[in-house]
Design goal:
The complex is a heterodimer of chains A (345) and B (296). By secondary structure, chain A is mainly alpha-helical. Chain A is built from 14 helices and 2 strands, in the order H-H-H-H-H-H-H-E-E-H-H-H-H-H-H-H. Chain B starts with 16 loop residues before the first strand and ends in a 13-residue tail after the last helix. The chains are: A mainly alpha (345), B alpha/beta (296).
């Protein structure tokens, strides 16, 4: 029995061609979609072709992309965050109210907002773990709680629906320089969130694919029981992912606050779905365990291009949401088709 | 568990794992009573039993999911009570469950090192991990040409082997296999049985849980049959033939009754009005059990 006879070589598994290896990557569908959308608006919208507008398109994409990247990480880890949209507003309002109400340096408000955002993320993750409820439900609860808090606290502190202007407080200029400045690269004016978006994409992609923690993210999303059985700290991993979303919400919230000097308390509602859609277009599975950070960033780019392309083409912008819905479904279908082709199954 | 707690090297014939009169009750339900098992390194101990015989309870005690309530369990001669799977793993007892604890969408090498990733600085040492995973799987005699393939696209047998190879690589001294052949076809089962032998030759104590006496008899050194939570048979290979094992497993008397009942049913008979088509089937190999796992 101890001599093992070699079974005839299994010739069913051929080596895959380089093309199908490339096509099997999760972000390919998004790239194809991005090229298609770019080509479409290139053809129909003259303003889309102007180099100067590249900065505008990238800026529009970055305000979605910063969140899409962190939401994609969370989705690969198998969870949703429906509070992500209003959490951005909560973060901005926290900074504005704290600094204005106590007359503090703006940076103190920024710091409190960061703690607040991370705490909201940690709370989402902890509640998920404690209750065992699906994250869809837990974060739906947080979504409503935060929405109410945003409106009520703004009413109490600022006496209206928008936060008070911060521009005469200490540290405003430096905070604006960090979160809402812009720089010029040749003919293109690049707003700073574009840079943050790129950095965040690179950091998150490296984290996911090249670090131990990334391996854990895939595992807790793919099969959390299996992950636990081999010693992956499932709860810690998930809480950290929610805190990552909190960090993204803080970064975007600070940008919006210092870009416009104040924030509307009802802002951000509905954006959580846009982040999720961008991640899904980028190849994330709703069931977790699979997806791509670069894909999510490209998904955000598709949004940015569409949003401005429709305007540049002179179409009625009311169609934007319809276009999004079509994009969502077709990109998922393309992703599925490409995946099946590439895996040859 | 790459850093296994250095336990006393088992010398000679001393069992690595001993259960003495071990049992588990849930309230007034005695799920398992009076089990004596000695697992030695380089030996395959087969635990057989029908559904509900207490096999799962036994695995759960050894793998640390449940604590026993009667008797004692010794690891390398020291009485132990595991309160979590991590403790059992640290003592070198690895369990390969039916669901295998593999994440289906992850690449083979990522799964192999899941929870024990090799790092170079803050980053994964991917070349090393791929190389080691490839080597370890080749050692087990399984060639996976593309370690980047998701585990879910492999056959059931290959997945079993990955789970077994992983347990061995990360320092298991005793490996518990929970019905590794239950969901597999004939060929795939053969593959897994070969690796059980490999694991034995690598010096591991193997506990092979199954309800298939044929599979057990192909590789087992020692057989234990559980019935209604008690040991119904405890015999060495020399004391037993396959027929006896099968008979005991099926419950001797019960099998007699069954064959009596079925005696009147002529297996060659078909319902009137139907004719069995002859031909094609006989040109091929003898019909094997459905290879459904290959399509998963």
């Amino acid at each position: 029995m101890s001599t093992v006879t070699t079974t005839p070589a299994d010739d069913r598994v051929g080596t895959r061609s380089a093309a199908s290896t490339v096509l099997a990557r999760p972000e390919v569908g998004a790239l194809i979609g991005a090229i298609a959308v770019a080509a479409l608006f290139f053809a129909v919208a003259p303003a889309f072709r102007s180099v100067g507008n590249v900065g505008t398109i990238l800026y529009g994409s970055s305000t979605i992309g910063i969140m899409a990247v962190v939401v994609a990480l969370l989705m690969i880890g198998g969870e949703f965050d429906l509070s992500a949209g209003v959490a951005v507003t909560t973060s901005g309002l926290t900074a504005a109210h704290t600094a204005w109400y106590f007359g503090l340096n703006v940076w103190a408000g920024v710091g409190v907002a960061l703690l607040m955002s991370l705490a909201i993320g940690a709370f989402n993750g902890w509640l998920l773990h404690k209750t065992g409820l699906p994250s869809f439900l837990v974060t739906l609860g947080t979504f409503f709680v935060l929405q109410g808090v945003n409106l009520a606290m703004t009413r109490v502190i600022a006496g209206g629906v928008s936060s008070n202007s911060l521009n005469d407080l200490d540290g405003f200029d430096s905070a604006k320089a960090v979160f809402a400045s812009s720089l010029t690269l040749g003919p293109v004016e690049v707003k700073i969130p574009v840079i943050y978006w790129f950095l965040l994409t690179v950091v998150a992609a490296v984290l996911l694919l090249r670090s131990r923690y990334g391996n854990w993210i895939f595992a807790v999303g793919g099969d959390s029981a299996a992950a636990r059985a081999v010693g992956v700290p499932v709860v810690v991993t998930k809480i950290a992912l929610f805190m990552g979303v909190g960090f993204g919400a803080w970064l975007l919230g600070m940008h919006l606050l210092f870009e416009y000097n104040n924030l509307q308390s009802g802002q951000g509602v509905g954006n959580e779905f846009i982040y999720i859609i961008a991640a899904v277009i980028g190849g994330c599975l709703l069931t977790g365990g699979y997806g791509s950070i670069v894909g999510a960033a490209v998904g955000a780019l598709i949004f940015g291009m569409t949003q401005l392309g429709i305007t540049y083409a002179g179409w009625n912008p009311d169609w934007f949401k319809t276009f999004l819905g079509v994009m969502l479904i077709s990109s998922v279908l393309v992703n599925m088709y490409v995946k099946r082709k590439a895996e040859g199954r | 568990m790459s850093t296994v707690e250095e336990t006393v090297a088992p010398t000679g014939d001393r069992p690595v794992l001993e259960l003495e009169n071990c049992g588990k009750s849930y309230g007034n339900v005695h799920a398992l009573r009076g089990v004596n098992i000695n697992v030695r390194q380089g030996e395959v101990t087969c635990v057989l039993g029908d559904n509900g015989a207490g096999k799962s309870t036994l695995i759960k005690i050894i793998s640390g999911l449940h604590e026993y309530t009667e008797g004692s369990m010794k690891v390398n001669g020291v009485v132990r009570q595991f309160n979590s799977p991590r403790v059992a793993q640290a003592m070198g007892i690895a369990t390969v469950y039916q669901d295998l604890a593999l994440a289906p969408l992850m690449a083979v090498w990522r799964n192999f090192f899941l929870g024990n990733e090799v790092r170079k600085g803050p980053f994964l040492d991917i070349p090393t991990m791929k190389r080691v995973a490839g080597e370890e799987l080749t050692k087990m005699g399984i060639e996976i040409p593309d370690l980047d393939r998701p585990v879910g696209s492999l056959s059931g047998g290959q997945r079993q082997v990955i789970a077994i190879a992983r347990a061995i690589y990360f320092g298991a001294k005793v490996i518990i296999l929970d019905e590794p052949t239950a969901a597999l076809g004939v060929k795939q089962s053969g593959v897994v049985l070969k690796y059980i032998v490999k694991a034995r030759d690598a010096g591991l104590g193997v506990i092979f849980i199954t309800h298939n006496p044929h599979h057990a008899y192909l590789v087992g050194n020692h057989f234990i049959i559980l019935k209604l939570g008690r040991v119904a048979l405890d015999a060495h290979r020399d004391e037993l033939t396959l027929e006896q094992l099968t008979g005991e497993m099926a419950g001797g008397q019960e099998l007699d009754e069954l064959s009596h009942e079925l005696a009147g049913a002529d297996p060659g008979k078909v319902v009137e009005g139907h004719e069995v088509e002859r031909g094609a089937v006989f040109d091929r190999e003898p019909a094997a059990a459905p290879d459904h796992e290959e399509r998963q």
